[in-house]
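Ticket #4471: structure output looks truncated?

Reporter: J.K.
Steps to reproduce: submitted the chain below (239 residues) through the standard prediction queue, then opened the result file.
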Amino acid sequence: MAMIRTIAIDDEPLALKLVTGYISRTPFLELVASFDNPVSAIEFLNQNEIDAVFLDIQMPHLNGTEFARLLTGGPKIIFTTAYEQYAIEGYKLDVVDYLLKPFGYEEFLRAALKLRDRIDFNTKKEVVVEANKNFLFLKSEYKIYRINFDDILYVEGLKDYVKVFMYRQPRPMLSLTTLKAMESRLPSDRFMRVHRSYIVNLNRIELIERQRIIYGDTYIPVGDQYKELFQTWVENNFI
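Returned output as attached by the reporter:
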């Protein structure tokens, strides 16, 4: 069973002890930490991934609704409070539930089950999908194109853009990405960074002259920091 990682925040020690005890009794909840003030919790959340927060509202320095607004798009929230008047605010903040103190375990469990229904456990699974070894998809001019690795001659980096030059294509494809991102997607046994601005398809190299790779009228220099690796590749394929 996938566990929901939670923290509890309440400035009243007895109330905090009650909530943390209920969390510990619930099989699908994991209590990661508890706090008696929200400021300490913010620092913790900046460094840890949490799925849900059981949050008191009336607290000094930073109340629960102010705290919840800081977590927009982050962990799910269940308010725990003695004040009914915050229910509308909770609705506006799209909290999972609103537990009115004093509440028992039955009420707590109903809120926890509602929380479980709101969390997509698929996003909590670590799914490893291997990158395709023959092509990638590239967005260019508001369209997404399939680019076969074998068809790439070389890639030129232009700050936040790249130009992908293709075999037998008169014009390169322009895409809003970085050369570093392209390098991470191209198979390293077939592509090599030879310059801070260029990646070449090793299988498409036909002519090398004076540390330059020549594609028709285009001369791609081999940068000093890449010379040794490139020369090793050449020597390993030399007759």
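Triage note (M.O.): checked the attachment and the full token line is present. Residues 54 and 149 are 50 Å apart (CA to CA).
Status: closed, working as intended.
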